[in-house]
Amino acid sequence: MNTDIYSESPVVHEPAFIDGHSVEIPILKILKQDGSIYENAAMPNIDQELATKTYKTLAFHRVLDERMVAAQRQGRISFYMAALGEEAASVGGAAGLKDQDMIMAQYREQGALMFRGFSLENFMNQMFSNEKDLGKGRQMPIHYGSNALNYMTISSPLGTQIPQAAGYAYGQKLQGLDAVTICYFGEGAASEGDFHAGLNMAAVHQAPVIFFCRNNGYAISTPSDEQYVGNGIASRGVGYGMKTLRIDGNDILAVISAVQLAREYAIKEGKPVLIEAMSYRLGAHSTSDDPSGYRTREEEAKWQEHDPILRMKNWMLAQGWWDEAQETALFEKLRDEVLAAVKVAEKVDKPPVEDLISDVYDKVPPLLQSQFDELTAHIKKHPKAYPFTAGRIK
Amino acid sequence: MAQMNLLQAINGALDTVMAEDDRAVCFGEDVGHFGGVFRATSGLQEKYGKSRCFNTPLVEQGVIGFANGLAAQGSTAIAEIQFADYIFPAFDQIVNESAKFRYRSGNEFNVGKLTIRTPYGGGIAGGLYHSQSPEAYFAHTPGLKVVVPRNPYQAKGLLLASIRDDNPVIFFEPKRLYRASVGEVPEEDYELPLGKADVVQQGSDITLLAWGAQVEIVEKAAALAAADGISCEIIDLRTILPWDIETVANSVTKTGRFVVSQEAPLTAGFASEIAATIQQECFLHLEAPIARVCGMDTPYPLALEKEYAADHLKIYEAIKNSMTY
Predict the structure, then answer these.
(1) ipTM score of complex
(2) A73 is annotated as an active-site residue
(3) CATH fit for domain B198-323, picks 3.40.50.920, 3.10.20.600, 3.90.1170.50, 1.20.1440.230
(4) What residues of B are in contact with residue A171 (Cβ under 8 Å)?
(5) Nearest one of A87, A106, A81 to A288, comparing CA atoms
(6) How would CATH label the architecture of A22-32+43-345?
(7) Domain B2-185 carries which CATH code?
(8) Hey, are the CB atoms on B69 and A166 less than 8 Å from each other?
(9) Neighbouring C-beta atoms of residue B79, cutoff 10 Å
(10) Burial class (CB in 10 A: 0-12, 13-18, 19+), B49
(11) What is the pLDDT of residues B282-318, one digit of tens each?
């Protein structure tokens, strides 16, 4: 009922608009680029072990992205999406959660999956859509997923995971689990109907979900000022009556701090939270576009100064938890490992032809089975046209 | 056994599931305390609490998105879309998400525990937006099951099977029959098989096929034909996807004549898919062209609903044409 708003709002007698920008939203910053901490900043719950794991994950992320963009350029994989410059959002998010929490990502959050321990082989098998891919070679590169690691398989349509996260978290709460759902999306996806549907569903039904917006400035080529005119995505959270926090997305400590706080609140109060992480997509949207067509080198150079990985490294050095020798050794080792893994994964067979029809339903329906029987008979007739499967038909 | 209307049968099925499975959740617009605009969920919130039977905001894509997540989490998600005419904002969630959840993840995740209930169909003076039969859109989507019951007994048994089936199911309820169709329904738990058609009446001269509320119309036409000495075999398809080709093809092989009728418009309706398949399966047994008696290729009308509809007289004429071809 709307009686409260009707009878308890302050009253005016002359019409006056509330300005669309009147809600002031501060931005949380803990770590400076030089590795020092802002005065009076509240530190997240982080020890040397968590910090080292987080930093090593960031390093792995950067090396994998760098190598796989190159592999795509060489024609070894069809497609790739790097997260250059905004790795802290996904890695820090996972670092602020517990392993039983569900991660429902958009597509540029491979860092969270790395943190959870998805192996280099798993990444490679997915990108090469070979028969060892957990997804059975059905989706384009970077559409990872793992039930064991509570990382929901990526879906290309934008924003569909947002109302799903509300439902997933509602189920976790209904079962009384010590678990939340984190839901990643970009500021572009926040224009989708599913974003508004999902935030409202979560707020009304009190689902313990952490909505995490990576506001990285661009949706492919469209800058954020052509995406919305309000006070970023955070103002939407306020509109949906939700606890909201804006953070420096390139500040790993701010990310971890925000997610730890959000998790605690979501579990304790059983309600959703919105975090807007301000960042910048330093790389292209994907290997299919070239940013020089829609933005300046100067703009990119400015954001390079805010590199989140270098910022964390500076802090690690200052803490005495890391040194340059370790740095060189780690990056060398990672580069070698990634190159070796590419060479292995690209030689693994394509999935068997049976994987074409499995998992459409729990069991193969009769009509689909007869289509499959026709297909295999056809392949046997023209084996040269279907070289990956012809020799392997039972 | 008890006398029940179709709504009571559906309510009974939901009650059965919610009593046995404490992870079963029913939700949708006005589904909570009010019990749904047709009262299909009546009494469930009182019995099972607000956390398991509740109203949602007015956002169909949100309802189904939420349901997909809930089902992926392992809960039994039973979502209601108030009218099938309003399912389209959720089209992306159903077609790109529900239907592909298992396949795209290599079975790492699935939404097998999802059931979408929605009233469909005309004959209630509902005009364009309270009358549509959109089953064909969903029948074109591998990964979904599409089920339509014709009476209270079928509704309870098919709904229980749909909810327990390990695939996402869209369950279209014939709203014209919600209160009009009354019959004997067991009070205990029972299931009717998905993917299996039901031979409603044996016959030897011609096969008539329909689903949902249209079965009753076909039965009326068959009664008229019987007075002319024509013996009709009547089949209720029950599941649109995946559909029971075998039962239909066996019948047409026996009778040699085939009329398929649907409420939805003719062009690219599911009747067309059936006609193509039966033509292939039964080509040498057919004595006449397969006839499709369907709604016209217009939006669903209001004042001229009677003229538009695939009524018993149009079906009766199609039967006679087939017999004298």
Answers:
(1) 0.97
(2) no
(3) 3.40.50.920
(4) 23, 69-70, 73-75
(5) A81
(6) 3-Layer(aba) Sandwich (3.40)
(7) 3.40.50.970
(8) yes
(9) 28
(10) exposed
(11) 999 999 999 999 999 999 999 999 999 999 999 999 9
